[in-house]
TrEMBL record:
It comes from the Bacteria. GO terms for molecular function: heme binding; iron ion binding; monooxygenase activity; oxidoreductase activity, acting on paired donors, with incorporation or reduction of molecular oxygen. It comes from Deinococcus reticulitermitis. PANTHER family: CYTOCHROME P450 YJIB-RELATED, P450, PUTATIVE (EUROFUNG)-RELATED. It holds the Pfam family p450. Residues 1-25 are annotated as: Disordered. CDD domains: cytochrome_P450 (cd00302). InterPro entries: Cyt_P450, Cyt_P450_B, Cyt_P450_CS, Cyt_P450_sf. Belongs to the cytochrome P450 family. Keywords: Heme, Iron, Metal-binding, Monooxygenase, Oxidoreductase. This is Cytochrome P450.
Amino acid sequence: MTTDPAPRCPFQSSERKTAFGSEHSPGVELQGNVWHLRSYAAVKQVLRDSERVRQGATTDNVLVTRLRPAVIFQDGEEHREQRTAIARFFTPKTVQDKHHAFIDHLTERLIVRLLRAGQADLSDLSMELSVEVAARVVGLTDSLQPGMDRRIDELLSGSDISGAAGAGPLVRLRSAVTQSRGLLRMSSFYRIDVRPAIQARRKKPQEDVISHLLGKGYNDLEILVECLTYATAGMVTTREFIGVAAWHLLENGGLRGQYLAGDRTERHRILHEILRLEPVASTLWRKAAEDVTLEQGGAAHHIPAGARMILDIRTANADASAVGEEPLTLCPHRALSGGVQAQALSFGDGVHRCPGAFLAIHESDVFLHRLLSLPLRVVGTPELTFNELLMSYEIRDLLVEVQQ
């Protein structure tokens, strides 16, 4: 009995839009005193090794090190307890039962605005969507003024925000509480958005992250750090993904038609493939707590305890040994190796896998499905830049116009 070969991808023109410079080849390489992991197998092994590998972000800042670490920086039993406690906020059932109607209503509000204006920058619409949805989950719903999306955007886009040398992007963000201009923006975010939410939940706890943190005894500054973490890992990443997905779907008529005609499973498959090709978080940092051995290309690489590792998600996601032929081509029905998920490592893996993965895809799908049902065209060329602070691409001036 023979099986038919996998069909060739029909979207040969849909390739990576967010490439910066030359693409690396999968592998494991020591540069200076830092190990660079670029193969799917090596990156996945490290992400899943919670016994010998720890988060790589470190800082010497005294104020930050005295804070209780945000969940994304925790390891071991402390991390497992926190992840178990917050998992209920992000389950598919919770998303469907508690947040779907809100996402649908918010989407319609944004679409009405687009229709009235006739033109809009999708980076603005997607930022508003991702911020309001994540804020609902976190509990940032009592702001003194509108415009939280603009405040977060200004806070995260400032090049003056910096942290410890060699630290991971999120810890550099945490360090910004001691920086001058960053402190002003941080203070505004805390005063207008975070503190009112904390005060409201001290009086009346709700089913959200801030209420959970208060129940665990977190102070205001620790909750601010958590909110910044969710802003970075939830709001901003979803915004950029919606932008790059819309860019692909608007410029590729065949892919757009398949997306609009598909059921939810098929639409999510297409979005996951776009995310595999265009991972928003391009780099993760890890540190070896014990000796780690990686097998790559028939050779063993011995990484000693204390060594730091840079995990190249972009290159690992384009490792042909894991994701099949033509790894830099967008192909939703590609033949993946056993155990490889459709989005590859774009949501991470192991104990630190993104807890909001389903929510991100769900809200993106609701918005994009409604958006792409309109007769739209892209106006001009989007601006593509790379944010060194967040180690991710940024898409701006993605202007769309409603055709009459």
